C-alpha cells in the first residue's frame, strides 16, 4: 500500500481541544528545538504540500525547526525501526502499530486525545493507531480502496452500472474483452509486496474469510481458499492483466490512466489524478468510482489504509513533536486539502467546501467507510505479511495450488505467532 503526507494552516487558527495537549518530560516553548519527521513519498498528501505546511508551522512557531524526510513506503518501516531516537515524528501504517507498541518504539498518547475528539474521528482512523485499547499516535490519513472504472468503456460494452460483486466484475470484464474494447480489463497491485496483502485482505474478508481470528492464524479456511482461487482464475482467464503480478499502486494508476484497464482497485488519490489531471491521464472525465465489490456473504469489504503520526520514545522533543502533529491533524488543514486526502473528522464530510472538492468520492466514502477491514492486528504482523506475500505470489503464478500454498502458510504463521 502507498501514501504520502502534508498539511497547512496559520497558527492563529484554533485546533480545538487538541491544542491543550502536552507531553511531559520534554523541552519548553522557550527553547529552540529541531524536529526530524519522516514521511512516505507516495499517495495521499504530496511532498510539496507537506513542506508548505511545515513552513507555515515554523513561521508560526519560530522556536521550532522541522526537517521533513520523505522515503518510499517500502522503506518507511525499516527506517523507523533502525532510526532509533533520531526521529521526533514518524508516519506509521496501521499494521505496524501493534508491533511498535509492544516493542516500545512509540509513545502511548492515550491521554492526549480527549473523548470529544475521538467521537469526531472515524473509527477506522483511530484503529490505525490503536493497540490493546490504547492510542499510540494521532490519526492523520483516512484512506481506503475503491473500485475505479472507465465509464466510456462500460458504455461501449452496454454495461449500465459498475459491478457490485466479484462475480459481476468477472462477467463485465469478459464482455469488455470479448468485444475487444480492452485487452486486459482488470488491473491489480499484486506484486510481492504489502500492496498484495492489502488486496488479499479486502478480497478474503468479502468472501467471509479472516486471515487471523482472535489473534490466531486461520489462513487456510475454506472461505480464504475460495477468495484466492478467485484471484488465480481472474489471471488464468486473461481478464486480469498478467503484469498485475509486478504492479504496485502507481503501476495500476498508470495502466488505468492510459486507457489500458476498465477496472482497478486503488486508493483515494487515484481519482483526482486519473479523472482531472490531463498531464497524468488520458481518461480525464471518464473515471467512475464505486464500492469495492463483495459477495453474497458481505456486500463490500475494503482494507483500512489509515495512517497516523506517532512520537518515538527516543525523542527528546516530545512537546514540540506533539504540537507539530496537532498542526497536521487540525480540521482546518484537512478541510483545505480535502482534494488530496479525505479528512479523519466526521463533521467535515457534511461541510459544503469539502463535498465540493469531489462530491462523488465524498458521498461514496460515507458508505465505503462502513466496510473497512483491518489487516491483522498482531505484534508479529511483519513476519506474517512477508510469508503471506510469498505464499500468495506462488499461488498466483501457478507454481503451487491455492490449497497447498495456504496450508503451508498456516503452519508457518502458527510458528511465527507462537514464537512471539
Automatic annotation (TrEMBL):
Residues 1-19 form the signal peptide. Pfam families: SBP_bac_1. InterPro entries: Bact_solute-bd_prot1, SBP. The keyword Transport applies. SUPFAM superfamilies: Periplasmic binding protein-like II. Keywords: Signal, Transport. PANTHER family: ABC TRANSPORTER PERIPLASMIC-BINDING PROTEIN YCJN-RELATED (PTHR43649:SF34), ARABINOSE-BINDING PROTEIN-RELATED (PTHR43649). Belongs to the bacterial solute-binding protein 1 family. This is Extracellular solute-binding protein. It comes from Paenibacillus planticolens.
